[in-house]
Design a protein that fits this description.
By secondary structure, the chain is mainly beta. The protein has 3 helices and 10 strands; from the N terminus they run ββββαββββββαα.
């Protein structure tokens, strides 16, 4: 895979799952997405790191990958582990932190010969409201190759795509987290 004319090695795209551990400066084309209370990113699938180039015509971004035994075992161990497709716009300022999920539009996402119908545009195309696409129902078994294809057109920005194994947070856990937070007293909100 190539980004900005240089080869991406899996070691260039390792992901730290510690919440306060920023990516290393040498990871020039890594996008650290804004954290979500609904899932925790656990493992990057390095072969899926791809660049979507600026174009005035139709383009295709594709990658093929197989899961390692450890990745497959993680996905199979519990239904809370899923494979999500993330995409973000290249930031012209060079900033790589807290970027919103953002897919090029128009696009068509195909995974293992199945068109993914997830809404990746967000609410009324508002920046910061898009969700990653859930590819989990279309996974192929450990020994088989998975094929991801993103068809796009008329992009004005560069985008980068990544697949991550994520851990979904249950609604019950979300509720517990909200209830643990300190309450805001009425007087403070009115001031």
């Amino acid at each position: 895979a190539y980004l900005n004319g240089s080869t991406i090695r899996p070691s260039d795209l390792t992901v730290s799952v510690a919440a306060n551990d920023p990516p290393k400066a040498s990871q020039k084309n890594y996008i650290h997405f804004k954290e979500s209370p609904f899932y925790k990113m656990r493992k990057l699938i390095p072969e899926t790191a791809q660049k979507i180039s600026i174009t005035n015509v139709r383009g295709v971004c594709s990658c093929k990958f197989k899961f390692t035994k450890a990745e497959w075992n993680l996905l199979e161990s519990d239904k809370k582990y899923k494979l999500y497709l993330f995409c973000g716009a290249a930031n012209s300022t060079g900033s790589i932190g807290n970027e919103p999920i953002q897919f090029p539009h128009p696009n068509e996402i195909r995974f293992n010969d199945t068109q993914i119908k997830d809404n990746v545009r967000g609410l009324k195309n508002k920046l910061g409201t898009a969700k990653p696409a859930d590819l989990t129902p279309y996974l192929r078994p450990l020994s088989q190759q998975n094929v991801l294809e993103i068809v796009y057109a008329f992009t004005k920005n560069e985008f980068f795509t990544y697949c991550y194994i994520v851990e979904e947070v249950s609604p019950e856990k979300l509720l517990q987290d909200v209830l643990k937070r300190p309450k805001i007293i009425k007087a403070a909100t009115l001031d």
